[in-house]
């Protein structure tokens, strides 16, 4: 009898019997980390002798905590989650794959999700209207005006594809909807023995912060859209069994500290420790005192740690949250029974509990956490609040230029009156993002702070754009029930929508008078947001410095109006009645008061009511004119949704891979280049290649929308690749030109500066392949498939970096781009490269014989030009194709081509 058959067992849950795969008695299981036990169950259940073998299970059970990752397994997620920015191109690709199958003589309906796939439309609402009572309705009207074509396409996909559901706009943020409703923890399907089969919930998502679901004990992480499409089509995710970092939480949060402060502290600690490509697992006696909302807030920030996941085990806290959020008592009983039967129960006081063994150990005493913010451009750059003013002053000169006006600039507006603005002023103070708006404690704290500020007569400064965009409608319910929404309204924090908004770059325009003053005087304005991302150029084109903070601190900074502020020594203002100074400490709510209001205001009934008919949508959604048919009728004039070109010349069998000769450098970049730098999500100027493209098709700048909303159109996205306004291509310095921010490069074909897109056209005409050179942490940030798709469409064949972030590295392979790593301790600088060289990459062809080379030989030849002598530099670059599965994808020209060929067979 096979291992899979041997472990199939029956579990009694109340009066019902169900089948499940028993892992509790497998040798070695008791000492494995919780996350690896989840992988064991995933493999045992899916043993087929081909993709998943008993040997894979046995190697996992024999996991050596000290070893470096070397054993490959095939992880099969139970679900796929998508948001609309990344999900629309997924559906475009699926629709295009149906066309490709038909062209190759196959049945188009083989292209269909094989696992549950849910899309939550949450990234398209923009804050056009704010500070008015009907801002939500106005912003949703604008959302449908801008995105109606995309939404009709998604409605088509909903009826054309099986196992595909869409949560309509205005419901909430994908990750909050996931933990509050979609996630099951333990899933059920019809079994082969006359009983239901139950198994662990797991998921991958097209958003980095899919890891929020880790707070529920569900293993899941963000992947690029191309990996998600493959997973939807039944392709397992190839991975190496990772090292697991055990992170022990002890103590409790002191007075005045929020979950946001805890997560910023953990983010800083784990980034400094180094957890890229690793699992992080939280454990210890202290877990029982960590609320589920706090666990979700911590798990959400895993991409900011750099880890694959940040997971918590299933325990009583999990069950309590499932009950609060409206799950049935039958489901809760199933989760408890299953977790206990399979050694997945995380209660350290349980009689059969065994503390797991970990590869590395870390610990945080929550009593030591202090109020904090993070910025001005990375989530891991935590600053204690009492050092925030000094930190800001130190960073400010890096953002100022010779054009920066150092004097206050007068501004006159009809909406907010007359005032003066200067460098360091807060232009945006937004309560936004899944990270914090999922957490009642910080949202209630914000409301209580607003109430106290209102009682003292304090208000935000008139130049601050204030907004409140919760992650679900339940937040609006409990803010209303507690009466705190009235206090938030009084401070300009009216609801503006239910979606990602500011955190994804949909902060909307500043008042035109403010925007003009900022740009005419080159002012350094600041945003403060309760989000998880503050990368350069992400939040607003008018804002240079961005800081993450808890929701109550967001309001505090709105009242202060500037980052050049010390909350300890400077008053926020004077009491409108007594005239006495009012400090932050005077209006900050106590932990006890916050807990009291949360207990009184957040109820199970709210979740049950708000999710009762979650897929139905409002009248706007239901009245959309939906196309019919199993294949989509593409509109050649559409500027939102176009048939993808990746499969146009695809043959039934893959062509051999080839070495690369004579490649030119398209971009020479530094450290911490994010996927926002590579493929921005926000607004774009009329003078950009994407802006010119739209204007040539009759679209005026006010109708541009954003890069994110146009991800279904490859023509827009390739023109926006490397188009971030804060990108700095050091190639200019190498040829004696001034480095200019934005999507520019030096074109060696025309021998002059150019946009990156226009230069790529010249290289394509001359049949010259391209390469990108970069520093450490290349591809940090969002799981943005267009950062890889756009790269390959520009003609880039390889990227050489000092190190890669996990998701972007796999996405590059998934698009047929070779990720290479400089030799240990080496870099562009140490090797004396400057980007004027031509590059040969030798040894790639070994992949054709089924061998993945550890290195390829790189020959970089610099000509005698630009005032430098000729030079040849040779080195062996590490090939970052980490698994045999990834090698198959690369040989096929990409993961989608690989999957399509397999489905055709």
Compose a concise summary of this entry.
With 905 residues, this protein is an alpha/beta fold. It is 33% helix and 18% strand.
- Name of the CATH first level of the largest domain: Alpha Beta
As a percent range, the share of strand residues is: 15-25%
- The total domain count is 4
Mean pLDDT: 94
Number of helices: 32
EC number: 4.2.1.3
Pathway: Carbohydrate metabolism; tricarboxylic acid cycle; isocitrate from oxaloacetate: step 2/2
GO molecular function, one term: aconitate hydratase activity
Pfam families: Aconitase, Aconitase_C
Features:
905 residues, alpha/beta, Aconitase, domain 3, Aconitase, domain 4, 4 domains, seven-stranded mixed beta barrel, five-stranded parallel β-sheet, 32 helices, 34 strands, 33% helix, 18% strand, globular, Aconitase_4Fe-4S_dom, tricarboxylic acid cycle, EC 4.2.1.3, AcnA_IRP_Swivel, Aconitate hydratase
What does this structure look like?
The chain is α/β, with parallel strands linked by helices and 905 residues long. It folds into four domains: 290 residues, Aconitase, domain 3 (2-Layer Sandwich), CATH 3.30.499; 231 residues, Aconitase, domain 3 (2-Layer Sandwich), CATH 3.30.499; 200 residues, Aconitase, domain 4 (Alpha-Beta Barrel), CATH 3.20.19.10; 41 residues, no CATH class. The chain is 33% helix and 18% strand. The protein has 32 helices and 34 strands. A seven-stranded mixed beta barrel has the order 26-29-30-31-34-33-32. Helix 5 links the parallel strand 5 and strand 6. Helix 2 runs antiparallel to helix 3. It is globular and about 80 Å long. The model has no long low-confidence stretch (mean pLDDT 94). It catalyses: citrate = D-threo-isocitrate. Its cofactor is [4Fe-4S] cluster. Keywords: 4Fe-4S, Iron, Iron-sulfur, Lyase, Metal-binding, Tricarboxylic acid cycle. This is Aconitate hydratase. It comes from Bifidobacterium commune.
């Amino acid at each position: 009898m096979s291992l899979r058959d041997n472990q199939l067992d029956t579990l009694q849950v109340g009066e019902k019997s169900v089948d499940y795969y028993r892992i509790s008695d497998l040798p070695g299981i008791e000492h494995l980390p919780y996350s690896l036990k989840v992988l064991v169950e995933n493999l045992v259940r899916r043993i087929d002798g081909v993709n998943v073998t008993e040997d894979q299970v046995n190697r996992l059970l024999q996991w050596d905590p000290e070893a470096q990752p070397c054993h490959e397994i095939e992880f099969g997620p139970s679900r796929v989650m998508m948001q609309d920015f990344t999900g629309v191109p997924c559906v475009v690709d699926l629709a295009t794959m149906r066309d490709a199958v038909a062209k190759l003589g196959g049945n188009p309906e083989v292209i269909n999700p094989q696992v549950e796939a849910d899309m939550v439309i949450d990234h398209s609402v923009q804050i056009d209207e704010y500070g008015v009572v009907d801002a939500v309705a106005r912003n949703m009207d604008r959302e449908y005006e801008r995105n109606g074509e995309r939404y009709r396409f998604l409605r088509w996909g909903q009826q054309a594809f099986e196992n595909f559901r869409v949560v309509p706009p205005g419901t909430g943020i994908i990750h909050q909807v996931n933990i509050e409703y979609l996630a099951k923890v333990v899933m059920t399907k019809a079994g082969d023995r006359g009983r239901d089969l139950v198994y662990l919930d797991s998921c991958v998502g097209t958003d980095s912060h899919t890891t929020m679901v880790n707070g529920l004990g569900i293993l899941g992480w963000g992947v690029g859209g191309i990996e998600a499409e493959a997973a939807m089509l039944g392709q397992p995710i190839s991975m190496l069994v990772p090292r697991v970092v055990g992170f022990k939480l002890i103590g409790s949060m002191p007075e005045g500290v929020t979950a946001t402060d805890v997560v910023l502290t953990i983010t800083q600690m784990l980034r400094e420790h180094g957890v890229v490509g690793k699992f992080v697992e939280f454990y210890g006696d202290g877990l029982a005192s960590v609320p589920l909302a706090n666990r979700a807030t911590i798990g959400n920030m895993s991409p900011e740690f750099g880890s694959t996941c940040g997971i918590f085990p299933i325990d009583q806290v999990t069950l309590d949250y499932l009950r609060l959020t409206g799950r049935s008592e039958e489901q809760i009983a199933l989760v408890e029974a299953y977790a206990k039967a399979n050694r997945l129960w995380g209660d350290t006081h349980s009689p059969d509990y065994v503390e797991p063994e970990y590869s590395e150990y870390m610990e945080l005493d929550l009593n030591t956490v202090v109020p904090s913010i993070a910025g001005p451009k990375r989530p891991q750059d935590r600053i204690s609040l009492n050092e925030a003013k000094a930190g800001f002053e130190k960073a400010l000169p890096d953002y100022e230029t010779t054009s920066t006006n150092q004097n206050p600039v007068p501004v006159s507006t009809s909406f907010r009156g007359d005032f003066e603005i200067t460098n360091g002023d807060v232009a945006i103070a937004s309560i936004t993002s899944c990270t914090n708006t999922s957490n009642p404690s910080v949202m209630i704290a914000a409301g209580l702070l607003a109430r106290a500020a209102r009682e003292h007569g304090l208000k935000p400064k008139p130049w601050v754009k204030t907004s409140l965009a919760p992650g679900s409608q339940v937040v609006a319910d409990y803010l209303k029930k507690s009466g705190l929404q009235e206090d938030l309204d009084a401070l300009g924090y009216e609801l503006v929508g239910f979606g990602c908004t500011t955190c994804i770059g949909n902060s909307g325009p500043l008042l035109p008078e403010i925007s003009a003053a900022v740009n005419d005087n080159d002012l350094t304005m600041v945003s403060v947001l309760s989000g998880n991302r503050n990368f350069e150029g992400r939040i607003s084109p008018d804002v240079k410095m961005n800081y993450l903070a808890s929701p109550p601190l967001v309001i505090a900074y709105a009242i202060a109006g500037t980052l050049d502020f010390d909350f300890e020594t400077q008053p926020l203002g004077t009491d409108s009645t007594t005239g006495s100074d009012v400090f932050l400490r005077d209006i900050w709510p106590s932990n006890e008061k916050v807990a009291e209001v949360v207990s009184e205001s957040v109820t199970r009934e709210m979740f049950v009511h708000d999710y009762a008919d979650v897929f139905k949508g409002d009248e706007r959604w239901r009245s959309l004119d939906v196309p019919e048919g199993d294949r989509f009728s593409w509109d050649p004039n559409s500027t939102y949704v176009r048939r993808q070109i990746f499969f146009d010349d695809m043959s039934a069998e893959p062509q051999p891979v080839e070495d690369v000769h004579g490649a030119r450098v398209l971009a020479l970049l530094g450290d911490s280049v994010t996927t926002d730098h590579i493929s921005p999500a926000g607004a774009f100027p009329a003078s950009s290649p994407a802006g010119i493209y739209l204007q040539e098709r009759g679209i005026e700048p006010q109708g541009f929308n954003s890069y994110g909303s146009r991800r279904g159109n490859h023509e827009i996205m390739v023109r926006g690749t490397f188009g971030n306004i804060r990108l700095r291509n050091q190639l200019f310095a190498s040829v004696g030109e001034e480095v200019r921010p934005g999507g520019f490069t030096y074109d060696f074909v025309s021998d002059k500066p150019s946009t990156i897109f226009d230069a790529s056209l010249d290289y394509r005409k001359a049949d010259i392949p391209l390469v990108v050179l970069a520093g450490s942490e290349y591809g940090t940030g969002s799981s943005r498939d267009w950062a890889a798709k756009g790269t390959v469409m520009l003609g880039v064949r390889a990227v050489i970096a000092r190190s890669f972030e996990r998701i972007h590295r796999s996405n590059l392979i998934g698009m047929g781009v070779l990720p290479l790593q400089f030799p240990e301790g080496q870099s562009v600088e140490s090797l004396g490269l400057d980007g004027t060289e031509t590059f040969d990459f030798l040894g790639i062809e070994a992949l054709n014989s089924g061998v993945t080379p550890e290195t390829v030989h790189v020959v970089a030849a610099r000509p005698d030009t630009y005032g430098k002598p000729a030079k040849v530099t040779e080195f062996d670059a590490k090939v970052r194709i980490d698994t045999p599965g990834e090698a198959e994808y690369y040989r096929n020209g990409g993961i989608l081509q690989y999957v399509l060929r397999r489905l055709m067979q």
